[in-house]
């Protein structure tokens, strides 16, 4: 697995500013700040759960 | 020919001969026999009074048995139908229960996923904080030049991990020990959202929430600053901006002798912070410790602020 894509410092500062101003929501801040970092397992589990639920219905 | 036959019959009947007599007896006999047959059959119940044939008793019996069987079958089918209806009802109820369980499961999963989502995001904020602290420690010159900016950024990462930013309006400030006033702490750094007046405030070591955390060297959570049972500097009169304050001592591990300051975070509503958010503040206080420690030990912080 390669190095995760970190958000550059300048962009992080800009995101902080946009969030403080209310231009972006917390969800948008979370998504753009994290940029997929540490999130692979959560998304895989979520996918697995959704498939499980669709099989039950 | 026809006329000849009619003349012959006329002659025989009118003349009162033996043939005429024979006819009369024959007709009378037939009538009597017919009456007797009628009476006997009527008596036997084989015909009704109008000489209509009555159904055979055996056949009636068979039909009655058939009818009874059919009625029993209908009853049995109705019973089975009722049982099936009941089972159907039970199955439907079971399905409804299962649907409800699935919905509850989904609800719990969504809640869990949101928390997991929040945790992974918080981890990213911790990573960026650690990265910037490392960069500041590695490049002291740059740190001294851009200290305000760096600290605002670092504390903003902490603020970013707080849920409900608009409602809670979280603001962070770090106080350190006052080098001259032994009974007070002094401003060291603050997050965005504060006015410049925050630099002027010097909390008492005895008589303020930050002072309490300093003295006891433990976290101090004031869920409502208007509650007089809490130790809080009410002269600040900032309760209209916040109702909650959490003060966390900056220390290395559990050793009180290592304490260098207090990190305080305010929240607009009463009891603004959840347990997980308090834990995050404590974590960030630990993360920031090396940088604040390095800066203080370098002796570059004076009572007039940073050099």
UniProtKB/TrEMBL annotation, chain B:
- Residues folding into a coiled coil are 60-108
The GAF domain is annotated at 147-286
Q: Which UniProt keywords apply?
A: Coiled coil, Membrane, Transmembrane, Transmembrane helix
Q: Name one Pfam family in it.
A: GAF_2
In the UniProt record, does the keyword Transmembrane occur?
A: yes
What SUPFAM superfamilies has UniProt attached to this entry? GAF domain-like
Q: Which InterPro entries match?
A: GAF, GAF-like_dom_sf
The transmembrane residues are 22-43
- Its protein name is GAF domain-containing protein
Q: What is the organism of origin for this protein? A: Thermoflavimicrobium daqui
Q: What is the lineage of its organism?
A: Bacteria, Bacillati, Bacillota, Bacilli, Bacillales
